Amino acid sequence: MKLLHSEKSRLRAALRKEGSRITKQRELIFGILMTDRNHPTAEEVYHRAKKELSGISLATVYNGLEILVACGLIKQVHFERASTRYCPNLKEHAHFQCEQTGEVFDVPLGRDAFQYLQEILPEGFSANSISLSYIGKSKAESKGLQQNS
Ligand SMILES: [Zn+2]
């Protein structure tokens, strides 16, 4: 879960801007998000972090994730009736959640799509951020269905 040199610099600079400092725990949490990129929940980050830092607490993980969100290094992802997930992809994108496996995938949102979503807002409305989520079947699942038929 080693951070690349550039990622570590980005982490340090972002934390400093927020008046926070880099810690072993924050570095590990950011490293987990940058490495796996499968939108883990705080509990999942905690379980992975414990393998490397056995003394880390769930509270420290929650706190670290909160700080990384405040720094703009990661984003929260919400699905109905589900725990918050975390995503390090800062480009405009939508999320697709597979209802069978619960896995979450990034769907790149082209500039045109993003512009369209802004344009359809009523006059006088402006969005600072847009979150778009799909829920359905992922490729792995539909492949399985084909094999059964
Ligand atoms: Zn994402």
Structure commentary:
This protein has 149 residues and is of the alpha+beta class. The chain has 2 domains: 5-77, Arc Repressor Mutant, subunit A, CATH 1.10.10.10; 91-148, Ferric-uptake regulator, C-terminal dimerisarion domain (Dna Ligase, domain 1). The chain is 46% helix and 14% strand. The longest helix has 13 residues, at 5-17. The chain starts with a helix and ends with a helix. The model is unreliable at 143-149 (pLDDT under 50). Bound molecules: zinc ion.
CATH architecture of the largest domain: Orthogonal Bundle
CATH homologous superfamily title of the largest domain = Winged helix-like DNA-binding domain superfamily/Winged helix DNA-binding domain
What's the arrangement of strands in the largest beta sheet? Answer: 4-3-5
Tell me how many strands there are. 5
Tell me the domain tally: 2
CATH class of the largest domain: Mainly Alpha
Largest sheet: 3 strands, mixed
**Number of H- or I-type helical stretches:** 6
Structural class: alpha+beta
**Beta-strand residue fraction:** 5-15%
Q: Please give the share of residues in helix.
A: 40-55%
- Uncertain segments are 143-149
Give the distinct bound molecules: zinc ion
Distance between the termini: 42 Å
Order of helices and strands: HHHHEEEEHEH
How would you sum up the global shape?
Answer: globular
Gyration radius from CA atoms, angstroms: 18 Å
Topology-level CATH name of the largest domain: Arc Repressor Mutant, subunit A
| Whole-number mean pLDDT | 89
